[in-house]
Amino acid sequence: MSTFEEIKQYLPQYLSSGSQKTLFRDLEQFPQNIDKRFYSQGSLSDVNYFQGDGVKDVFCINLPSADIRPAPVVLLSNSCDLDQANERFAPLSAIYTPVFNLEKYKNALEKSGIDQERVNTHVANIKKQQVSHIFYLPKNEQLTYDAIIFLDKINHISASELYKKPASEKRIFSLGNLGFYVFLVKLSIHFTRIREGLDRSAPQLLAS
User: Fold this and answer.
1) What is the mean pLDDT of residues 71-99?
2) What is this structure's pTM?
3) Helix (H, G, I), strand (E, B) or coil at 31
4) Which residues span the domain enclosing 147?
5) What is the pLDDT of residue 132?
6) What is the pLDDT of residue 136?
7) Sign of the four-CA dihedral 72, 74, 75, 79
8) Could you give the number of structural domains in the chain?
9) Is residue 206 part of a domain?
Protein backbone atom coordinates (compact mmCIF):
# COMPACT_ATOMS: atom_id res chain seq x y z
CA MET A 1 0.00 0.00 0.00
CA SER A 2 1.33 3.48 -0.88
CA THR A 3 1.86 6.14 1.75
CA PHE A 4 -1.07 8.13 0.39
CA GLU A 5 -3.32 5.06 0.48
CA GLU A 6 -2.43 4.70 4.15
CA ILE A 7 -3.16 8.38 4.79
CA LYS A 8 -6.63 8.02 3.23
CA GLN A 9 -7.67 5.81 6.15
CA TYR A 10 -7.33 8.76 8.52
CA LEU A 11 -9.02 11.44 6.42
CA PRO A 12 -12.40 12.83 7.52
CA GLN A 13 -15.31 10.61 6.50
CA TYR A 14 -17.99 13.30 6.87
CA LEU A 15 -17.04 15.13 3.65
CA SER A 16 -19.24 14.87 0.58
CA SER A 17 -17.91 12.70 -2.24
CA GLY A 18 -16.93 15.79 -4.25
CA SER A 19 -15.15 17.46 -1.32
CA GLN A 20 -13.34 14.25 -0.43
CA LYS A 21 -12.07 13.82 -4.00
CA THR A 22 -10.84 17.43 -4.00
CA LEU A 23 -9.04 16.87 -0.69
CA PHE A 24 -7.42 13.67 -2.00
CA ARG A 25 -6.25 15.51 -5.13
CA ASP A 26 -4.86 18.43 -3.10
CA LEU A 27 -2.99 16.13 -0.73
CA GLU A 28 -1.42 14.27 -3.63
CA GLN A 29 -0.01 17.63 -4.83
CA PHE A 30 1.21 18.69 -1.37
CA PRO A 31 3.38 20.68 -0.60
CA GLN A 32 3.55 22.34 -4.04
CA ASN A 33 -0.03 23.57 -3.61
CA ILE A 34 0.37 25.52 -0.36
CA ASP A 35 -1.41 28.66 -1.52
CA LYS A 36 -4.80 30.30 -1.09
CA ARG A 37 -6.44 26.87 -1.53
CA PHE A 38 -5.45 26.41 2.12
CA TYR A 39 -8.41 28.58 3.12
CA SER A 40 -12.21 28.52 3.07
CA GLN A 41 -14.26 31.51 2.01
CA GLY A 42 -17.51 29.85 3.10
CA SER A 43 -16.71 29.93 6.84
CA LEU A 44 -15.73 33.60 7.11
CA SER A 45 -19.22 34.83 8.02
CA ASP A 46 -20.10 32.00 10.42
CA VAL A 47 -21.19 33.03 13.93
CA ASN A 48 -18.96 30.40 15.56
CA TYR A 49 -15.19 30.12 15.66
CA PHE A 50 -13.47 27.00 14.34
CA GLN A 51 -10.21 25.28 15.12
CA GLY A 52 -7.50 26.85 12.98
CA ASP A 53 -9.28 30.18 12.54
CA GLY A 54 -7.19 33.32 12.40
CA VAL A 55 -8.56 35.99 14.76
CA LYS A 56 -7.42 39.60 15.14
CA ASP A 57 -6.78 41.60 18.32
CA VAL A 58 -6.57 38.85 20.94
CA PHE A 59 -4.44 39.48 24.04
CA CYS A 60 -1.08 37.70 24.07
CA ILE A 61 1.76 37.45 26.56
CA ASN A 62 5.28 36.11 26.07
CA LEU A 63 6.56 35.17 29.53
CA PRO A 64 8.65 36.13 31.42
CA SER A 65 7.79 39.55 29.95
CA ALA A 66 4.71 41.00 31.67
CA ASP A 67 3.61 42.94 28.59
CA ILE A 68 0.16 41.96 27.32
CA ARG A 69 -0.67 43.10 23.82
CA PRO A 70 -3.41 42.42 21.27
CA ALA A 71 -2.21 40.45 18.27
CA PRO A 72 -3.55 38.26 15.46
CA VAL A 73 -3.72 34.63 16.60
CA VAL A 74 -4.67 31.15 15.40
CA LEU A 75 -7.09 29.15 17.53
CA LEU A 76 -5.78 25.75 18.62
CA SER A 77 -8.85 24.62 20.60
CA ASN A 78 -11.13 22.15 18.84
CA SER A 79 -14.28 23.55 17.25
CA CYS A 80 -16.64 21.89 19.76
CA ASP A 81 -14.93 23.59 22.69
CA LEU A 82 -15.20 26.93 20.89
CA ASP A 83 -18.93 26.52 20.21
CA GLN A 84 -20.91 28.66 22.67
CA ALA A 85 -23.99 26.47 22.21
CA ASN A 86 -22.28 23.57 24.01
CA GLU A 87 -23.12 23.78 27.71
CA ARG A 88 -20.34 23.13 30.23
CA PHE A 89 -20.23 22.72 34.02
CA ALA A 90 -17.39 25.23 34.01
CA PRO A 91 -16.43 27.72 31.27
CA LEU A 92 -13.69 26.55 28.92
CA SER A 93 -10.71 28.58 27.83
CA ALA A 94 -9.74 28.99 24.21
CA ILE A 95 -6.08 28.25 23.53
CA TYR A 96 -4.24 30.01 20.73
CA THR A 97 -0.86 31.12 19.47
CA PRO A 98 0.23 34.45 17.92
CA VAL A 99 0.66 34.96 14.18
CA PHE A 100 4.07 36.21 13.01
CA ASN A 101 5.11 37.77 9.72
CA LEU A 102 7.43 35.26 8.00
CA GLU A 103 9.52 37.95 6.28
CA LYS A 104 10.15 39.70 9.61
CA TYR A 105 11.11 36.38 11.18
CA LYS A 106 13.57 35.75 8.33
CA ASN A 107 15.07 39.23 8.74
CA ALA A 108 15.49 38.68 12.49
CA LEU A 109 17.37 35.44 11.87
CA GLU A 110 19.66 37.17 9.38
CA LYS A 111 20.35 40.04 11.78
CA SER A 112 21.24 37.54 14.53
CA GLY A 113 24.21 36.42 12.43
CA ILE A 114 22.94 33.07 11.19
CA ASP A 115 24.43 32.06 7.84
CA GLN A 116 22.29 33.22 4.91
CA GLU A 117 22.19 29.78 3.30
CA ARG A 118 20.99 28.18 6.55
CA VAL A 119 18.27 30.83 6.90
CA ASN A 120 17.09 30.30 3.32
CA THR A 121 16.96 26.52 3.83
CA HIS A 122 15.05 26.96 7.09
CA VAL A 123 12.47 29.26 5.46
CA ALA A 124 12.11 26.88 2.50
CA ASN A 125 11.46 24.00 4.94
CA ILE A 126 8.87 26.11 6.78
CA LYS A 127 7.01 26.71 3.52
CA LYS A 128 6.96 22.96 2.89
CA GLN A 129 5.53 22.39 6.43
CA GLN A 130 8.66 20.41 7.32
CA VAL A 131 9.45 22.19 10.61
CA SER A 132 7.46 20.33 13.27
CA HIS A 133 6.76 23.23 15.67
CA ILE A 134 6.02 25.87 12.99
CA PHE A 135 2.86 26.04 10.86
CA TYR A 136 3.10 28.04 7.64
CA LEU A 137 0.19 30.23 6.53
CA PRO A 138 0.41 31.49 2.93
CA LYS A 139 -0.97 34.94 2.25
CA ASN A 140 -4.41 35.33 0.70
CA GLU A 141 -7.08 38.02 0.35
CA GLN A 142 -7.56 38.37 4.12
CA LEU A 143 -4.04 37.53 5.35
CA THR A 144 -1.93 40.00 3.40
CA TYR A 145 1.51 38.49 4.16
CA ASP A 146 3.09 35.05 4.44
CA ALA A 147 2.82 34.13 8.10
CA ILE A 148 3.78 31.49 10.63
CA ILE A 149 2.67 30.33 14.05
CA PHE A 150 4.81 28.62 16.67
CA LEU A 151 3.05 25.69 18.32
CA ASP A 152 5.21 26.12 21.43
CA LYS A 153 4.01 29.70 22.13
CA ILE A 154 0.54 29.04 23.53
CA ASN A 155 -1.78 31.52 25.27
CA HIS A 156 -5.32 31.12 26.59
CA ILE A 157 -8.37 33.24 27.31
CA SER A 158 -11.97 32.58 28.33
CA ALA A 159 -13.85 31.35 25.27
CA SER A 160 -16.67 33.76 26.12
CA GLU A 161 -14.18 36.65 25.82
CA LEU A 162 -13.73 35.83 22.14
CA TYR A 163 -17.44 36.31 21.51
CA LYS A 164 -17.68 39.84 22.96
CA LYS A 165 -17.54 40.86 19.30
CA PRO A 166 -19.12 38.70 16.57
CA ALA A 167 -16.81 36.02 15.17
CA SER A 168 -17.51 37.28 11.66
CA GLU A 169 -16.01 40.67 12.61
CA LYS A 170 -12.81 39.35 14.22
CA ARG A 171 -12.06 36.38 11.97
CA ILE A 172 -9.15 36.97 9.59
CA PHE A 173 -9.31 33.61 7.84
CA SER A 174 -10.70 30.12 8.17
CA LEU A 175 -8.87 27.00 7.01
CA GLY A 176 -10.33 24.91 4.20
CA ASN A 177 -10.24 21.10 4.10
CA LEU A 178 -6.62 20.94 2.91
CA GLY A 179 -5.35 23.55 5.36
CA PHE A 180 -7.26 22.05 8.27
CA TYR A 181 -6.02 18.51 7.63
CA VAL A 182 -2.38 19.66 7.41
CA PHE A 183 -2.96 21.75 10.56
CA LEU A 184 -4.21 18.68 12.46
CA VAL A 185 -1.22 16.66 11.29
CA LYS A 186 1.16 19.38 12.52
CA LEU A 187 -0.63 19.56 15.88
CA SER A 188 -0.41 15.79 16.23
CA ILE A 189 3.29 15.70 15.38
CA HIS A 190 4.14 18.54 17.76
CA PHE A 191 2.10 17.45 20.77
CA THR A 192 2.27 13.66 20.49
CA ARG A 193 4.87 11.04 19.68
CA ILE A 194 3.09 7.69 19.38
CA ARG A 195 6.46 6.14 18.55
CA GLU A 196 8.49 8.05 21.12
CA GLY A 197 10.78 5.02 21.62
CA LEU A 198 10.38 5.01 25.39
CA ASP A 199 9.13 2.06 27.43
CA ARG A 200 7.47 3.84 30.34
CA SER A 201 7.26 0.66 32.40
CA ALA A 202 10.99 -0.04 32.13
CA PRO A 203 12.67 -0.71 35.54
CA GLN A 204 15.12 2.18 35.21
CA LEU A 205 12.21 4.61 34.71
CA LEU A 206 10.22 3.30 37.66
CA ALA A 207 13.25 3.55 39.92
CA SER A 208 14.17 7.10 38.94
Assistant:
1) 88
2) 0.79
3) coil
4) 31-192
5) 83
6) 92
7) positive
8) 1
9) no
